[in-house]
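Lab notebook, bench 4. We co-purified these components, and the gel suggests they stay together. Before we commit to crystallization screens, I want a quick structural picture of the whole thing.
Request: model the full complex, all chains together.
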Amino acid sequence: MNHDDKELLYQFKQASTKEKAFTSILKKYQEKLYWHIRRMVVTHDDANDVLQNMFIKVWNGLENFREDSQLYTWLYRIATNESLTFLEQQKRRSITSFDEVDTGLSNKIKADEGFDANKLEWKLQLAIQQLPEKQRAVFLLRYYDEMPYEEMSRVLETSEGALKASYHHAAKKIEDYILNH
Amino acid sequence: MENNNRIQDELQEISSVVANLNRRNVYSVPSGYFSSLPQLIINRITEADKAVLPFASNPFSVPQGYFDGLAAEILSKVAGGTKAESEPDNELAEVAPLLASLSKKNPYTVPAGYFNTLEFKQLATAKVVKMGLFKKITRYAAAAVITGALAVGGFFYTNNNTTDTAATSGFNKESLQQLSEQEIIEYLNASAVSGDVKGGQDQNLLHQTKELSDEEILQYLNENPEPGDAFQLKG
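Here is the predicted assembly.
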């Protein structure tokens, strides 16, 4: 674990510096975690809800963090799990099939004020939403956050081999979507 | 940087199309969102912490007039005035909102006055047969049948043995009646010599038999018939 994070964890465990340390951790990781969540759930409001819930869990659980991985790995794990839980809840609330929930996410992308169907970067977002949730997380962590497979296996609790295969399939599916739409 | 190049090379191998896409962020964020986010979260945490801080006296509060109207509210819910929110209702709303929104009104009807005229008397006097008693009887009957079968089988078995013994030994009452006195004497003499006398008599008895006269032997046989013998040796 890097020195800064170790120091922040130590300060968090002291009552007098707990809030200050937490704020520092927030400021350090909030944007990376926000964008990871946002690409999973699409809209700002949903991403905001998930992010805030996620950091409240961090506040409650950081004292018991065993430091057997990097702090950011642990944070990404909570963020990913919260996003997946959110999507699962959306699926249950919806009276339609999961395919139509995916269509719902695609519609949310198209509803974004900056959406432009002709631009490849928007097509990429639409393509990403076609992926199964966990595969989506694998692709996002590797493609945008450039996370090593070793760290990713701790985030997603999946073997490195499975993650490599999943990333390979995800990239192929995205390529197919972009070439055919 | 090395890691970035490696990841880019990896993607280039899988899909050159995806590898060459622009990674520009397409989503927008409200202005000042990230600067205000930490305080927003701290405020939420602080409010949550305040709710669980210990107090010397009762820390909980209830809305004014809560208990005054509580009885009436519960009674109205029991009467079906308001749909009370129960844990099963909340659970159903989460799992299947469409089903939760459906009315629980009973669609079935019964004839007018049905429950008033239901003949409970008949039900009260109905014969109740304990399944336990039937099982008991069946068990005893089965035991009796098996015992009977064994007894009958045993009887026939022993009977057959007796009959067979009689048949195989060649000892036939009818044939004995047809025998003459001389033939019996000759048989006895021959048996005595060979020692092949029924029951295996010893030599002393054989010797005694030789010394007996014919009249004495006949008399003996008439005085001591075999069980079931109904004949008398002709003198």
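Residues 14 and 141 of chain A are 32 Å apart (CA to CA). Worth comparing against the SEC data before the next meeting. The first helix of chain A runs from residue 3 to 12.
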